[in-house]
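Budget justification aside, the reviewers requested a transparent look at the raw inputs and outputs of the sequence design task funded under Objective 1. We therefore reproduce one unedited record. The lines immediately below are the structure tokens for a 219-residue chain.
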């Protein structure tokens, strides 16, 4: 009996180990990802090129010397529906607000966009990195990152890894491997595709930096 229990336990441990390794491999795998930024030029991106620039393989929005008049967005021309987006982001300066838009569209003849945002920054003393905000639509947080797990891995003045996965109505976000959002959209009228856009928020001087931007579309 004890022999059979030992064998069963060993098999169970092997299966658990395999499942953990599979999840880790999936999270780290880079197969089928396509780069959205070559590290040199933003000619194929749309937005205010006086606000956004390229330095040392990085897209930088904003300035540490001057106030930013209003929100600005640098966007792709293509729309994406179901996908996994990976990138690194950093935010420094007095103004502590930026974000990554997805399933988004530009508002005609306006600097704003409308759609989902993976937020970056602070709201008072609260860290809002990895929270899900609905830009220019419901104008509220749809899901907020829990502080304790996030702050253990968060890099306040350096680069943070962002991972955004959209599949049908489900939206998931990770910051440095910590899941911050697992949201299910209940409104069937909201579009499930759109552009990707990088934001610098209007207000006090700040620089939002983005690099290693790549995406994998789901069939």
């Amino acid at each position: 009996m004890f022999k059979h229990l030992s064998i069963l336990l060993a098999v169970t441990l092997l299966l658990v180990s395999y499942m953990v390794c599979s999840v880790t491999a999936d999270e780290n795998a880079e197969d089928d990802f396509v780069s959205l930024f070559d590290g040199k030029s933003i000619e194929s991106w749309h937005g205010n090129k006086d606000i956004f620039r390229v330095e040392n393989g990085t897209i930088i929005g904003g300035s540490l010397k001057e106030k930013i008049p209003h929100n600005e967005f640098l966007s792709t021309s293509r729309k994406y529906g179901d996908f996994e987006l990976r990138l690194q982001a950093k935010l420094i300066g007095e103004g502590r607000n930026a974000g990554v838009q997805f399933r988004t569209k530009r508002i005609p003849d306006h600097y704003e966009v409308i759609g989902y945002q993976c937020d970056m920054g602070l709201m008072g003393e609260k860290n809002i990195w990895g929270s899900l905000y609905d830009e220019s639509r419901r104008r509220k947080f749809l899901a907020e990152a829990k502080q304790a797990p996030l702050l253990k891995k968060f890099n306040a003045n350096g680069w943070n890894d962002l991972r955004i996965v959209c599949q049908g109505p489900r939206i998931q976000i990770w910051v440095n491997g910590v899941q911050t959002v697992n949201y299910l959209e209940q409104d069937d009228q909201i579009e499930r595709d759109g552009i990707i856009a990088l934001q610098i928020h209007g207000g006090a001087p700040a620089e939002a930096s983005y690099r290693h931007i790549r995406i994998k579309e789901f069939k």
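The longest strand covers residues 206-217. The two ends are 49 Å apart (CA to CA). Computational costs for records of this kind are itemized in the attached budget.
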